[in-house]
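Cont'd.
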Amino acid sequence: MDAGKSGNIRVLMFPWLAHGHISPFLELAKKLSKRNFQIYLCSTPVNLHPLKEKLARLNFPLIQLVDLHLPPLPDLPPHYQTTKGLPHHLLGTLENALDMASPTFANIFTRINPDLLICDIFQPWATSLAVSLNIPTVHFVTFGAISNPVELKGFKKTGVALPNISGGSDDQNGSESLSLRDRIVQCLKQSSDIMLIKSFREIEAKYIDNLSILTKKKIVPVGPLVQEPGEEDERAEITEWLNKKDPSSVVYVSFGTEYYLSKEEREELAHGLLLSQVSFIWVLRFPHGEKINVKDALPEGFAEMVGEGGLIVEDWAPQKKILEHACIGGFVSHCGWGSVIESMRFGVPIIGMPMLYDQPLNAKLVGEVGVGLEIKRGKNNRKIEREEVARVIKQVLVEKGGENVRRRARELSECILGKKDREVDQVADELVKLCGINHSQVW
Ligand SMILES: C[C@@H]1O[C@H](OP(=O)(O)OP(=O)(O)OC[C@H]2O[C@@H](n3ccc(=O)[nH]c3=O)[C@H](O)[C@@H]2O)[C@H](O)[C@H](O)[C@H]1O
């Protein structure tokens, strides 16, 4: 970096191709651009297209979206170049396709000539490129410190598979691409001494400190970074249904953008919702090309039994808008990190139903912070059971026993609101120091 340079620091941001990663990068880009950082956000066209329209409506002149075209692969057409809606068996293919795009990324990098690269921890070749050009790299971890990257073995302890996104196994059984753990370790070894994380000390202080010791880096929390619901998220039919419900009387059910319930899980969840007698709004999603119609996807006569007591939303729902609504009293969630933080921001207690990756650890954190309870799986078969689903929903939303959780969720939401953007100011300071440029920032 050129210490003599002044003006706006130019940041190239390069998240992994997942909605749950791109959203936090975009929110950080918005906040840094308001502090005069020039941001270039790089991803595949299918990931950037919905952002183009949104950013055009909002006022972020210092954010530029940069298309990265992956090499054409027979089973990975352009609309599959994202994890959103991608059939699970293609995750490794997507990871390999991104690796194959490293020369294209190198051309983008040299054309933009950034002062700083903010990158995910799955693309070590991007970090290597920056190091070779003497440009500092900062990694931005979009999941919690509790599931910190260095202790990936923790995922095994919780009995869930690692994301097989690298095509190879985590045990590096000679697969042609790097294992997830190797990607992360290589990234951490090459990057600068600070690492950003989408978290905050009020919920993760001990895990953030532990991560700093493990990685020997200064861990800089960026705060909750929750996108405030905009008018564009309005879905009149959903708002109309919610407006008819009493305060805190409805449970919202969603499993993020990458997990799809099995038939058996849908059955148990559906019957659990019926048994709970709590009104619900349930986002029902299927991978591209595997969509089932709602009538066949749910138990026989479910719609008739539920009547106005439940609303099924297919494919996509305005999650922040729903969580913000006064009638929502709980969130049955897979505990993806983005959903956990959003539920905390809007003060909605979580009924954890973790599935994969970091989600069991996120569910553990939710319990430790006191803003939710976890649906325990069957002792022998670790399966979801309808009676347990109903028990936890009723406890969190209705019963006296859930009062502490409901109160703690409200308290944490007020704490988050009171923080404003304190963490982002510190992030901006750290990046200016790292780049050694007289950055003209006013905030
Ligand atoms: C970091 C990684 O993100 C992954 O993303 P995933 O999409 O599964 O879940 P979230 O992180 O909750 O992210 C999901 C995001 O999609 C939004 N949404 C989802 C469904 C919908 O119908 N409408 C919406 O607006 C939601 O508001 C959230 O922002 C995995 O969790 C993984 O565990 C986590 O470590």
